[in-house]
Amino acid sequence: MTCGTNRLFDLTGKAAIVTGGGSGIGREICDVLAEFGADVACLDLHKDRAEETCEIIKKYGHKSLALAVDVSHYEEVCDSFQQVIAEFNKLDVLVNNAGIGPPSVLIDETDLKDWHRVIDVNLHGVFYCMKEGLRIMRQQKSGSVINVGSMLGISAAAPEILAQSPYVTAKHGVIGLTKQGAAEYGQFNIRVNCVAPGFHSGTRIAETLEIKPDAEEARVRQQMISSRTPLGRAAEAKELKGILIYLASDSSAFTTGATIVSDGGWTVW
Question: Is 167 part of the annotated catalytic residue set?
């Protein structure tokens, strides 16, 4: 479909930044924003992955920009946002998707380096990008910020499946930061919302659990995840597209401070 077939979700003329856009959920987010008309800057730790995403979304005929950025470094965030403004002259949508996961171990076994790295990327990185993005949007008096949190920002996972205190802590922080951002910037016609995905299928689960995709442990844990999810399966990255286009577009014009959960029912228990 083209963006003109449904004006409610039309992003024609909008400019977007997506962090962690080089693969997985981030790549799907870049794709749907471009599909509905936006120019998209794909920021990723790996420049080659960002370039691959930009090649994929070129089919929609809009501008794209690939930048290598470590969101845990504030100076890199500032520099990349300046490059985006130089290219697009505006910022309408900011999607904070970049994130990492540490090994699955109990709190007393957690390496301090893992703790600090995850907090630096998953929480400080979101704050840095919001700080710069909201500054730009405040001048424009418009914009939509979408933070990609996690169902583990609402509840914890059973430790036999996943024990990641740094990740859970950071994602709880992201939801709090989302609410505070909404409270502070509504006066400037800026909306701040959060998406809380559940477990996703494919190598993403294995990577999150720090185990090989074909390992027996991976298969067992994936079976445990499916059995505890009311819908009986993990998600596909593309299944977040509808929520993202809703929050990015004017169809959610009166929605701010919200956390929309897409976890197959995991958090009903």
Answer: yes
